[in-house]
Design brief:
219 residues; six-stranded antiparallel sheet; HTH_DTXR; globular; two-stranded antiparallel ribbon; alpha+beta; Iron_dep_repressor; binds zinc ion; transition metal ion binding
C-alpha cells in the first residue's frame, strides 16, 4: 500500500509521460507545484520501492510496477467520474475534485462493483480511456478538431482539457460527447472555425478551443 502523496506522484508521472516515456524532475516539480529537492527525495523513495527508475541528472521513468500502480489509481479516478455522472447525474464539470479523493480508497471490490454497475465502461465522462484491472490503458487515436477540414462532419469524442471552466464553456454552447459537428469554414488568419451542430447553424470556435476537442471522423 502507498501513501496518498506517493499515489499522486505516480499519477502525475503517468499523466506527464502519457503512460510511458521519460519525465524530468523540473517538469514534475512544475506540474505538482512542489519544490525540486522535495520531488527528488520522493523519487529516491519511489525508486527504493521499485516504482520509478531514478538516477541523478537523468530523466525519470516509471518501472513496469510503477506504471501498473499508476494505471490502477487512474482507473479508480475515471470509474468514479463515470459513476458520478452516469448514476448520480452530476455534471461532467463537477466530478474531478470528488474523484481525486475517492481514487485513494483501498478496496478493489468497491471499484469492481462500481465497474459492474456501470456496465464496464471503456471511457470516462470526458472521453479518456479507463485502464483495465491490471492498470493497462488502451489509448484511442483521435483527431483534434483544429486538424479537420472544411466540409467534414465529425463526432465529438473526448476533451483534452477537463478543467471545469472549459467544460462550463462547452455546456454554455450545448456541446457534449457524441455531438455531430459540421465544419463550415476556417478563418486562415487565426485558425478559428465556424461550425454547425444541433440547432446551432453558426458557432465560432477559437483555435484554443479546437485544439482541446478530440473528434472521430464520420465515413
Ligand atoms: Zn478527473
Amino acid at each position: 500500500m502507498y501513501s496518498l502523496t506517493e499515489e499522486n506522484y505516480l499519477k502525475a508521472l503517468f499523466n506527464i509521460s502519457n503512460g510511458s516515456g521519460e519525465v524530468n524532475v523540473a517538469e514534475l516539480s512544475k506540474t505538482l507545484d512542489i519544490k525540486m529537492p522535495t520531488v527528488t527525495s520522493m523519487m529516491k523513495k519511489l525508486s527504493e520501492k521499485k516504482l520509478v527508475h531514478y538516477e541523478s541528472y537523468k530523466p525519470l521513468r516509471l518501472t513496469e510496477k510503477g506504471r501498473k500502480e499508476a494505471g490502477l489509481i487512474i482507473r479508480k479516478h475515471r470509474l468514479t467520474e463515470m459513476f458520478l455522472v452516469d448514476k448520480m447525474k452530476m455534471g461532467w464539470e463537477d466530478v474531478h475534485d470528488i474523484a481525486e479523493q475517492i481514487e485513494h480508497i483501498q478496496s478493489p471490490v468497491f471499484f469492481d462493483k462500481m465497474d459492474e454497475l456501470l456496465g464496464y465502461p471503456k471511457v470516462d465522462p470526458h472521453g479518456s480511456p479507463i485502464p483495465d484491472k491490471n492498470g493497462k490503458i488502451v489509448w484511442i487515436e483521435y483527431n483534434k478538431l483544429s486538424d479537420c477540414k472544411v466540409g467534414e462532419t465529425v463526432k465529438l469524442a473526448a476533451v483534452i482539457n477537463t478543467s471545469s471552466d472549459f467544460l462550463k464553456f462547452l455546456n454554455a454552447r450545448e456541446m457534449r460527447l457524441g455531438l455531430k459537428i459540421k465544419i463550415k469554414s476556417i478563418e486562415q488568419f487565426d485558425k478559428s472555425i465556424v461550425v454547425s451542430y444541433g440547432k446551432r447553424q453558426k458557432e465560432v470556435l477559437s483555435n484554443v478551443v479546437c485544439e482541446r476537442l478530440l473528434v472521430e471522423k464520420e465515413n
